[in-house]
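[Automated response] Your request has been received and processed.

Submitted sequence:
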Amino acid sequence: MLHKSVMKDHIVSAMTAHIAALSESLEAFRSGADLDEDNTIDSEDISRQQEASDMAQRIQLQLDQAQADLKRLHLLSTDACEVADLGALVITDTHIFYISTAAKSLLMDGQTVQPISDKSPIFMAMYGKKSGQSFTVGDHTYTINAIY
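Generated structure:
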């Protein structure tokens, strides 16, 4: 039996590690963006400083998004669901989806579970559907076998 609380814990752990890695990268790029004003500075130094500053800004955006996703994930209920909505585990004829946040696939009890965001196209297609109903994404039609 697949347990949403265990899936949620795995995703929280992975996201926490991802946030730590982003934070470490951010610090590295921020330190690269700081030039020592006592040293001679040439155009290459300024260019590298700008590149490091740009990367730091991009990483900061990723970090902010990851932290917001983690906060939302902590608030996510693992109670049983009857329709495809945030927090639901949706088992289809070909895939298992956990509607939580976008993350890497999980191998749980010998089955692959794909965590998906409630902003993803596949979620939009399945939203509000019940067991026994179908939805289509692209050229593929999925039939919902069960929702937990």
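Summary generated for your ticket: The chain has three helices and six strands. Residues 12 and 70 are 7 Å apart (CA to CA).
If you did not submit this request, please reply to this message.
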